[in-house]
Amino acid sequence: MLHVHSLLRWAIVLAGIWAVIRAIKGVSGKTPFTATDKKAGMFFMIFFDIQLVVGLLVFFFFSPLAQTGLQDMGAAMKNPVVRFFTVEHEVMAIIALALVHIGYSKVKKAATDAQKHKYALIFYGIVMLILIKQIPWPFYEALGKGWF
Length: 148
Fold this sequence. Notes:
Elements: H1 2-29, H2 35-62, H3 64-71, H4 73-78, H5 80-109, H6 113-134
Keywords: Membrane, Transmembrane, Transmembrane helix
Protein name: Cytochrome B
Organism: Chitinophaga defluvii
């Protein structure tokens, strides 16, 4: 399950990059909001939803670090790695998930194409910044978990 969770990160990152690039093109080029723009945001949101389910399974059933942290939160808060995988990663992922859904809803309800692109850029851009910070990249010395 951890490998599935790790692989899904790439689907989210790629869909997020696609959604942000589409939004940048729309804002800078003042282009119409197309079905492709909508699909970019929708795939970003869908991959995030799937990742939430897989992430919850990993957290509650398959992660020894999370189990260690849940057994003794005081000790977990003193250990940066355990704290990251028990608290920080999950909280920020839930915030990012909420922002993806809020952004998608705002885009859908916006009156003009310009507003749709603007909301997409703001919300999906913020989510991508959160993702960049919260993914345990291999180059994060203490947290690196490998590329896949």
